[in-house]
Amino acid sequence: MAFLQRLGEAGCLLVVSDLETIMTAGNTCSADANSVVRDLIGQGYNAIGISCNVSEEDSVTKTVDEVVARLGRLDIVINNAAIGDIIKPLPELSLEEWQRVITVNLTGAFLLSREAARVMGEGGSIINIASQAAKTGFRQMAPYVSSKHGMIGLTRTSAIDLAPQGIRVNAVCPNHVTTTMGKAQSEYFSSLRGLDPETYRAQIAERVPLGRVGTPQDTASAVAFLASDEASFITGEALNVSGGEETH
Predict the structure, then answer these.
(1) CATH number assigned to the domain covering 52-173+215-241
(2) Cβ neighbours for 214, distance < 8 A, ≥ 6 positions apart
(3) Which end of the chain is more exposed for a tag (fewer CB within 10 A), N or C?
């Protein structure tokens, strides 16, 4: 939500897409519309919703085509769909669990990037929401960490491949942020250590040089910068947003 708000403040027409986003004609929310879209419209932003399953090629292709059909263009893509709650030791992971995370987190980013590149014009920007887990391993998170490491490889390679079209591709790598996913992860790992979640998050803050955990607004600022003309000569980068915890 935070980076949608930042891009909305910059004047972007927002397209919010997930498995259950539904909008009626005329930009009016239907009864089943995703709450994020409702909230954005309620705050005065220009937003629509289009349903998409990033793990299905046909769904991604149709979504991109619908965006262009309804809006006439596509300038910025943020690959943010992710599964991060399959946390268990490697020997206990099933192949189905592994494939589910890789398919959504990495294959989904590939499909949307590829289809976006098909319709984007000069100056387009693709931003992959990676993670500190894209650069550092974490126990019991093999699928998630692997998918995020792969996202950095996808970022670097697609930045080269899409440069002739004038499309920039970058990644943002936040450390712990207490979003819905981050909250679930911190609750799991705090329980593993016999701590309450607040104590665990306080310990995270202690190891961050700037002395606090990240916020959604921190990530939003990085996204807004990379999407803007101020970053017109930046591509193939994986930008840490970690308060100094991650430095490579």
Answers:
(1) 3.40.50.720
(2) 174, 175, 176, 177, 241, 242, 243
(3) C
